[in-house]
Specification:
By secondary structure, this protein is mostly helical. It contains six helices and two strands; from the N terminus they run ααααββαα.
């Protein structure tokens, strides 16, 4: 028998993926091409590198999600971290393409499939486990993107949530307090 929360879970995970996509996108949109490709140091990753890595992961994990291992033989993860200069336009195109693959796979899922096994690097995961694993991975990298973007923009940064020292005004507006 199908558990009633399966549909709620699917709706929630879709919402969470969309929120992280939006956060990353709004951070990237604030950047110049130079900032997108800037490194903090010789061992760090630029936002462009993180985008390329996330998009490679999205294509690998969510192409044929139910029928093939999430680590595709055609993926070259190490190349995702090569220093390739991207324009903001190209980075956002790649970003959109990657998320499209995620959404297509997730939108096709049915609640009764959530206990089904899929594989990532030959390890079995329920669909719920695989989706949660990817959500954590994307949240981690979106956090890096936002951190770096905020660092590069400094005082020009436009907050993606409630701005510092604006909580009281937000509460009054939202809740009439």
């Amino acid at each position: 028998m199908l558990h009633p929360t399966a549909s709620v879970y699917l709706a929630n995970i879709k919402q969470q993926y969309r929120q992280y996509k939006s956060l990353g996108e709004r951070a990237i949109q604030q950047l110049t091409d130079a900032e997108l490709n800037e490194l903090l140091d010789e061992v760090g990753n630029s936002i462009a590198m993180i985008v390329r890595h996330m998009v490679g992961n999205m294509h690998s994990r969510f192409t044929d999600f139910l029928t093939s291992d999430g680590e595709k033989p055609w993926r070259n993860r190490d190349r995702e971290f090569d220093r390739v200069i991207l324009s903001k336009t190209k980075a956002l195109e790649l970003w959109e393409e990657g998320w499209k693959v995620v959404y297509q796979a997730v939108d096709d899922l049915r609640p009764e499939e959530l206990d089904r096994k899929v594989f990532i690097r030959n390890e079995p995961h329920t669909i719920i486990q695989a989706l949660n694993r990817q959500l954590g991975h994307y949240a981690y990298h979106v956090g890096q993107i936002v951190f770096l973007a905020k660092h590069f923009k400094g005082k020009e940064w436009t907050s993606l949530s409630i701005a510092r020292n604006a909580s009281e005004a937000f509460n009054r507006e939202k809740f009439g307090e």
